[in-house]
């Protein structure tokens, strides 16, 4: 009975931010705010450009549009609370709201991974079997692939907050992090957390192994097809269509792998370094993705430039 009575003793958490760098929080908030604003602006431009330009109504750009929407949701679930901590000293976070933030952050990350897999498949079909591109990647198929990614993420992450709610939290309430991360919250429980840890690791590993395996398979097939081409110009053109996607893959998975490994086996890595990388993992890809696709994709680049030039001419008149 005593255990039940104190099961919900802690009603809120205290988010430290970046341990050891509290004196610099006001300065750290500046790049965070800049990344947040650029992510919202850049992804909005991508979505609007694809929507108003009929020539961009193709599967690859529909996937890019989904990625932009997900990036805006991901950065919006993270950056505002960080700025509250860094600039307003709003360290207190309600228990339920913390679990909600944790759920949405991890859900959006898994959706992002699924979309990168879908985009790799798009490149595989476009390069390896181009004559069947329009028959395989129809609009209903693209929609189903997007929905599959959302459904997978929704149900894979759902047990995490549910398993945490069954844990008792008595005295530990300080989270040494800038946002509510799954393992950081689990570590504060006053009970055995083996099930929570095992499930969290199994989800992370299964997503990374499956998604990276599918992406690697797609690119192996792509490289095999490209090297069978006789023309050097054709090879360069084919690989050039994958450049933006490869940059996005590196920007997403590199910090993700570093954050995952340091959180579980990197005991000697300072917590401040881990938290900075974990935060960059959520803020940088949503900011960089629209820039990468805007620069690397000629159709998007030309359309954005024409939009800004036409607006400049209209304002000049």
Automatic annotation (TrEMBL):
Please give the InterPro entries that the UniProt record associates with this protein.
Answer: GPCR_Rhodpsn (IPR000276), GPCR_Rhodpsn_7TM (IPR017452), Olfact_rcpt (IPR000725), OR51/52/56-like (IPR050402)
Query: Which residue ranges run through the membrane?
Result: 27-48, 60-79, 99-121, 142-164, 198-217, 238-261, 273-293
Q: What does this protein do?
A: Odorant receptor. Putative odorant or sperm cell receptor.
**Protein species of origin:** Canis lupus familiaris
Protein's name according to its UniProt entry: Olfactory receptor
Q: Which gene encodes it?
A: OR52AE1
Gene3D superfamilies from the entry?
A: Rhodopsin 7-helix transmembrane proteins
- Family in the record: Belongs to the G-protein coupled receptor 1 family.
State whether keyword Acetylation applies.
no
What keywords would UniProt list here?
A: Cell membrane, G-protein coupled receptor, Membrane, Olfaction, Receptor, Sensory transduction, Transducer, Transmembrane, Transmembrane helix
């Amino acid at each position: 009975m005593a255990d039940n009575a104190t099961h919900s003793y802690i009603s809120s958490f205290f988010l430290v931010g970046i341990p050891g760098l509290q004196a610099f929080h006001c300065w750290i908030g500046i790049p965070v705010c800049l990344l947040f604003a650029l992510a919202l602006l850049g992804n909005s431009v991508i979505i609007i450009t694809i929507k108003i330009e009929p020539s961009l109504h193709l599967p690859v750009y529909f996937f890019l549009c989904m990625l932009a929407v997900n990036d805006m949701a991901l950065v919006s679930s993270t950056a505002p609370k960080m700025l509250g901590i860094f600039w307003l000293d709003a360290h207190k976070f309600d228990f339920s709201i913390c679990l909600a933030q944790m759920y949405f952050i991890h859900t959006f990350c898994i959706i992002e991974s699924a979309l990168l897999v879908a985009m790799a498949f798009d490149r595989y079909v476009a390069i390896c079997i181009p004559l069947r591109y329009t028959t395989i990647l129809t609009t209903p198929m693209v929609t189903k692939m997007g929905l599959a990614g959302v459904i997978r993420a929704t149900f894979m992450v759902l047990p995490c907050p549910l398993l945490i709610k069954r844990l008792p939290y008595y005295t530990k309430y300080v989270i040494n992090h800038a946002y509510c991360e799954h393992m950081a919250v689990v570590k504060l429980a006053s009970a055995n957390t083996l099930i929570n840890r095992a499930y969290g690791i199994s989800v992370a590993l299964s997503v990374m192994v499956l998604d990276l395996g599918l992406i690697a398979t797609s690119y192996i097939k792509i490289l095999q097809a490209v090297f069978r081409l006789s023309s050097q110009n054709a090879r360069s053109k084919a690989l050039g269509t994958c450049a933006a996607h490869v940059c996005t893959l590196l920007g997403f998975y590199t910090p993700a792998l570093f954050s995952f490994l340091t959180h579980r086996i990197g005991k000697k890595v300072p917590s401040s370094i881990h938290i900075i990388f974990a935060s960059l993992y959520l803020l940088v890809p949503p900011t960089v993705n629209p820039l990468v696709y805007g620069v690397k994709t000629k159709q998007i680049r030309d359309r954005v430039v024409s939009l800004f030039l036409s607006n400049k001419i209209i304002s000049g008149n």
